[in-house]
Design goal:
218 residues; alpha/beta; Rossmann fold; five-stranded parallel β-sheet; 9 helices; 8 strands; globular; binds adenosine-5'-diphosphate; binds zinc ion
Length: 218
Protein backbone atom coordinates (compact mmCIF):
# COMPACT_ATOMS: atom_id res chain seq x y z
CA UNK A 1 0.00 0.00 0.00
CA UNK A 2 1.40 3.37 -1.01
CA UNK A 3 -0.58 6.13 0.60
CA UNK A 4 -0.66 9.83 1.30
CA UNK A 5 -2.63 11.21 4.25
CA UNK A 6 -3.95 14.68 3.48
CA UNK A 7 -5.78 17.09 5.74
CA UNK A 8 -5.46 20.06 8.05
CA UNK A 9 -3.23 20.10 11.13
CA UNK A 10 -5.00 18.31 13.96
CA UNK A 11 -6.97 16.02 11.65
CA UNK A 12 -5.37 12.98 13.27
CA UNK A 13 -3.10 11.97 10.40
CA UNK A 14 -0.10 11.29 12.62
CA UNK A 15 -2.07 9.24 15.15
CA UNK A 16 -3.73 7.09 12.48
CA UNK A 17 -0.51 6.73 10.47
CA UNK A 18 1.33 5.35 13.51
CA UNK A 19 -1.43 2.75 14.17
CA UNK A 20 -1.88 1.75 10.54
CA UNK A 21 1.84 1.40 9.87
CA UNK A 22 2.20 -0.85 12.92
CA UNK A 23 -0.74 -2.99 11.83
CA UNK A 24 0.31 -3.34 8.17
CA UNK A 25 4.06 -3.05 8.51
CA UNK A 26 4.24 0.04 6.34
CA UNK A 27 6.91 2.68 6.50
CA UNK A 28 5.66 5.85 8.21
CA UNK A 29 7.18 9.00 6.77
CA UNK A 30 6.19 12.23 8.48
CA UNK A 31 7.92 15.41 7.33
CA UNK A 32 6.93 17.04 10.64
CA UNK A 33 8.75 14.28 12.57
CA UNK A 34 11.75 14.39 10.22
CA UNK A 35 11.94 18.17 10.59
CA UNK A 36 11.61 18.08 14.40
CA UNK A 37 14.39 15.47 14.46
CA UNK A 38 16.57 17.71 12.27
CA UNK A 39 15.90 20.69 14.56
CA UNK A 40 16.75 18.61 17.63
CA UNK A 41 20.02 17.48 16.05
CA UNK A 42 20.89 20.98 14.85
CA UNK A 43 21.51 19.84 11.28
CA UNK A 44 21.87 22.45 8.51
CA UNK A 45 18.34 21.63 7.34
CA UNK A 46 16.99 21.82 10.89
CA UNK A 47 18.57 25.20 11.56
CA UNK A 48 16.98 26.59 8.38
CA UNK A 49 13.60 24.99 9.09
CA UNK A 50 13.17 26.07 12.72
CA UNK A 51 12.10 29.69 12.18
CA UNK A 52 9.39 28.65 9.71
CA UNK A 53 8.09 25.92 12.01
CA UNK A 54 7.96 28.18 15.06
CA UNK A 55 5.74 30.62 13.16
CA UNK A 56 3.57 27.86 11.69
CA UNK A 57 4.72 28.65 8.16
CA UNK A 58 5.70 26.00 5.65
CA UNK A 59 9.36 25.12 5.40
CA UNK A 60 10.60 25.81 1.82
CA UNK A 61 9.69 23.09 -0.69
CA UNK A 62 13.32 22.31 -1.58
CA UNK A 63 14.17 21.37 2.02
CA UNK A 64 11.22 19.06 2.69
CA UNK A 65 11.18 17.57 -0.80
CA UNK A 66 14.88 16.70 -0.49
CA UNK A 67 14.23 15.07 2.89
CA UNK A 68 11.47 12.86 1.47
CA UNK A 69 13.12 11.96 -1.84
CA UNK A 70 16.38 11.08 -0.03
CA UNK A 71 14.44 8.91 2.39
CA UNK A 72 12.45 7.19 -0.37
CA UNK A 73 15.69 6.24 -2.08
CA UNK A 74 17.48 5.18 1.10
CA UNK A 75 14.91 2.86 2.67
CA UNK A 76 13.11 -0.29 1.57
CA UNK A 77 9.62 0.78 0.52
CA UNK A 78 8.68 -2.44 -1.20
CA UNK A 79 6.16 -3.32 1.57
CA UNK A 80 4.53 0.09 1.14
CA UNK A 81 4.58 3.45 2.86
CA UNK A 82 2.39 6.11 4.34
CA UNK A 83 3.26 9.77 3.83
CA UNK A 84 1.93 12.02 6.59
CA UNK A 85 2.19 15.79 6.23
CA UNK A 86 3.74 15.59 2.77
CA UNK A 87 3.01 16.85 0.15
CA UNK A 88 1.67 20.17 1.43
CA UNK A 89 1.99 22.29 -1.74
CA UNK A 90 1.35 21.64 -5.43
CA UNK A 91 5.09 21.90 -6.08
CA UNK A 92 5.76 19.17 -3.46
CA UNK A 93 3.07 16.98 -5.03
CA UNK A 94 4.73 17.30 -8.43
CA UNK A 95 8.16 16.48 -6.99
CA UNK A 96 6.66 13.43 -5.27
CA UNK A 97 4.97 12.26 -8.48
CA UNK A 98 8.25 12.46 -10.38
CA UNK A 99 10.17 10.64 -7.62
CA UNK A 100 7.61 7.82 -7.43
CA UNK A 101 7.47 7.42 -11.20
CA UNK A 102 11.27 7.07 -11.22
CA UNK A 103 10.98 4.34 -8.56
CA UNK A 104 8.07 2.72 -10.39
CA UNK A 105 6.00 2.98 -7.19
CA UNK A 106 2.96 5.15 -7.99
CA UNK A 107 0.52 6.09 -5.22
CA UNK A 108 -2.48 3.83 -4.62
CA UNK A 109 -4.62 6.28 -2.68
CA UNK A 110 -4.74 9.68 -1.03
CA UNK A 111 -6.89 9.73 2.10
CA UNK A 112 -8.37 13.13 2.81
CA UNK A 113 -9.30 13.75 6.47
CA UNK A 114 -12.15 16.29 6.26
CA UNK A 115 -12.14 18.01 9.64
CA UNK A 116 -14.07 20.90 11.21
CA UNK A 117 -12.27 23.86 12.70
CA UNK A 118 -13.72 23.05 16.13
CA UNK A 119 -12.06 19.63 16.10
CA UNK A 120 -8.79 21.07 14.84
CA UNK A 121 -8.60 23.59 17.66
CA UNK A 122 -9.39 21.13 20.45
CA UNK A 123 -6.99 18.50 19.05
CA UNK A 124 -4.07 20.89 18.68
CA UNK A 125 -4.42 22.72 21.98
CA UNK A 126 -4.71 19.41 23.88
CA UNK A 127 -1.98 17.55 21.99
CA UNK A 128 1.07 16.38 23.92
CA UNK A 129 4.11 14.61 22.45
CA UNK A 130 6.68 12.30 23.99
CA UNK A 131 10.09 13.94 23.93
CA UNK A 132 11.87 10.59 23.53
CA UNK A 133 9.76 8.49 21.15
CA UNK A 134 7.42 11.03 19.51
CA UNK A 135 4.23 9.21 20.51
CA UNK A 136 1.16 11.44 20.37
CA UNK A 137 -1.22 11.92 23.31
CA UNK A 138 -4.14 14.26 24.01
CA UNK A 139 -5.04 15.58 27.45
CA UNK A 140 -8.66 14.36 27.19
CA UNK A 141 -8.97 12.21 24.02
CA UNK A 142 -5.84 10.05 24.45
CA UNK A 143 -4.59 10.68 27.98
CA UNK A 144 -1.44 8.96 29.20
CA UNK A 145 -1.85 6.69 32.24
CA UNK A 146 0.45 8.90 34.33
CA UNK A 147 0.12 12.61 33.70
CA UNK A 148 3.02 14.04 31.73
CA UNK A 149 4.68 10.63 31.18
CA UNK A 150 4.68 8.51 28.00
CA UNK A 151 2.95 5.10 28.39
CA UNK A 152 5.31 3.54 25.87
CA UNK A 153 8.77 4.62 26.97
CA UNK A 154 8.40 6.64 30.18
CA UNK A 155 9.62 9.79 28.41
CA UNK A 156 8.45 13.29 29.27
CA UNK A 157 5.39 14.67 27.46
CA UNK A 158 5.56 18.23 26.14
CA UNK A 159 3.43 20.65 24.18
CA UNK A 160 4.83 21.54 20.77
CA UNK A 161 5.82 25.18 20.36
CA UNK A 162 3.55 25.49 17.34
CA UNK A 163 0.55 24.03 19.21
CA UNK A 164 0.02 27.34 21.02
CA UNK A 165 -3.11 29.36 20.12
CA UNK A 166 -1.38 32.17 18.16
CA UNK A 167 0.52 29.79 15.91
CA UNK A 168 -2.44 27.48 15.36
CA UNK A 169 -4.37 30.26 13.61
CA UNK A 170 -1.55 30.79 11.15
CA UNK A 171 -1.22 27.05 10.48
CA UNK A 172 -4.90 26.86 9.60
CA UNK A 173 -4.52 29.84 7.23
CA UNK A 174 -1.45 28.26 5.65
CA UNK A 175 -3.37 25.01 5.14
CA UNK A 176 -6.28 26.85 3.51
CA UNK A 177 -4.09 28.90 1.20
CA UNK A 178 -1.40 26.38 0.21
CA UNK A 179 -2.41 22.80 0.96
CA UNK A 180 -6.16 22.60 0.41
CA UNK A 181 -5.79 22.78 -3.37
CA UNK A 182 -4.21 19.30 -3.27
CA UNK A 183 -7.70 17.89 -2.69
CA UNK A 184 -8.57 18.78 -6.29
CA UNK A 185 -5.14 17.80 -7.55
CA UNK A 186 -5.61 14.22 -6.32
CA UNK A 187 -9.33 14.13 -7.14
CA UNK A 188 -8.41 14.73 -10.77
CA UNK A 189 -5.96 11.85 -10.61
CA UNK A 190 -8.78 9.70 -9.25
CA UNK A 191 -6.83 8.87 -6.09
CA UNK A 192 -8.82 10.71 -3.44
CA UNK A 193 -10.92 9.01 -0.74
CA UNK A 194 -12.57 11.21 1.85
CA UNK A 195 -13.04 10.24 5.51
CA UNK A 196 -14.19 12.34 8.47
CA UNK A 197 -11.35 13.53 10.69
CA UNK A 198 -13.94 14.42 13.34
CA UNK A 199 -14.42 10.80 14.39
CA UNK A 200 -12.64 9.52 17.48
CA UNK A 201 -9.39 7.60 17.08
CA UNK A 202 -10.80 4.05 17.22
CA UNK A 203 -13.80 4.79 15.03
CA UNK A 204 -11.67 6.36 12.33
CA UNK A 205 -9.16 3.50 12.49
CA UNK A 206 -11.97 1.06 11.66
CA UNK A 207 -13.28 3.25 8.84
CA UNK A 208 -9.80 3.50 7.33
CA UNK A 209 -9.21 -0.25 7.40
CA UNK A 210 -12.60 -0.71 5.79
CA UNK A 211 -11.77 1.83 3.08
CA UNK A 212 -8.56 -0.05 2.23
CA UNK A 213 -10.37 -3.40 2.12
CA UNK A 214 -13.15 -2.10 -0.11
CA UNK A 215 -10.61 -0.58 -2.49
CA UNK A 216 -8.80 -3.91 -2.78
CA UNK A 217 -5.63 -2.58 -1.20
CA UNK A 218 -5.61 -5.20 1.55
P1 LIG B 1 0.62 19.27 11.77
O1 LIG B 1 0.13 18.26 10.78
O2 LIG B 1 0.00 19.14 13.10
O3 LIG B 1 0.61 20.66 11.24
P2 LIG B 1 3.40 18.51 11.27
O4 LIG B 1 4.20 17.81 12.28
O5 LIG B 1 2.98 17.78 10.05
O6 LIG B 1 2.15 19.04 12.07
O7 LIG B 1 4.15 19.84 10.79
C1 LIG B 1 4.73 20.76 11.68
C2 LIG B 1 5.43 21.88 10.92
O8 LIG B 1 6.51 21.34 10.15
C3 LIG B 1 4.57 22.63 9.90
O9 LIG B 1 3.83 23.68 10.49
C4 LIG B 1 5.63 23.14 8.92
O10 LIG B 1 6.33 24.26 9.42
C5 LIG B 1 6.62 21.98 8.89
N1 LIG B 1 6.30 21.00 7.81
C6 LIG B 1 5.91 19.70 7.97
N2 LIG B 1 5.69 19.12 6.78
C7 LIG B 1 5.94 20.07 5.83
C8 LIG B 1 5.87 20.11 4.42
N3 LIG B 1 5.51 19.02 3.71
N4 LIG B 1 6.20 21.26 3.79
C9 LIG B 1 6.58 22.35 4.46
N5 LIG B 1 6.65 22.40 5.80
C10 LIG B 1 6.33 21.27 6.49
ZN1 LIG C 1 7.66 7.80 24.51
Amino acid sequence: MKLVLLGPPGAGKGTQAAELCKEYNLLHMSTGDLLREAVKNNTAQGIKAKSYMDKGDLVPDEIVAAMITDKLKAVDISAGFMLDGFPRTKRQAEILDAALIALNMPLDMVVYFATTEETILSRLTGRRICRSCGRIFHVTNIPSKKEGICDGCGGELYQRNDDKAETIKNRINVYNSQTKELIDYYKQKNLLRKVSGDMDVNELFIVLKDTFKKSGLL
